[in-house]
Specification:
It is built from 4 helices and 2 strands, in the order αβααβα. By secondary structure, the chain is mainly α. The protein is globular, with a radius of gyration of 13 Å.
Length: 99
DNA sequence: CTTCTGACCAGTG
DNA sequence: TCACTGGCCAGAA
């Protein structure tokens, strides 16, 4: 599978995460044909300025935010759309998409 | 060509 | 639950 098409598959999936829900790098990778969780993280890190993808709805399999530069902003964006975090910064199972 | 570095993850103790 | 480990694989140097 060509690198570009893999990227497009990743973006297409991220695009479909419902508001107020989240999914993980690993789940997205599994939905593509050959991508690995690391590639998904890399794809989001390199998003071009001006994109409109809900990158903030992608979290780690531990259901915590991955450690990266925009984590703080990501946390606020999710809070703004109603996502609740428990005391240890984890998101409820029910919010992980797809069901 | 080799080495290193990640917005990762599942297994193990 | 947490810390650590080995595996992962495309880029950058």
């Amino acid at each position: 599978m060509p690198r570009i098409e893999l990227l497009e598959q990743i973006y297409t999936i991220v695009e479909q995460i419902p508001v107020g829900r989240v999914t993980t790098y690993g789940r997205i990778a599994a939905m593509t044909e050959g991508a690995t969780p690391r590639m998904v993280g890399s794809a989001l890190r390199n998003l071009p300025a001006g994109h409109q993808l809900p990158w903030h709805r992608v979290i780690a399999a531990s259901r915590k935010l991955a450690d990266h530069g925009g984590a703080e902003r990501q946390h606020q964006k999710l809070r703004d759309e109603g996502v609740v975090f428990d005391r240890k910064g984890r998101v409820a199972f029910d919010l992980v998409w797809p069901d």
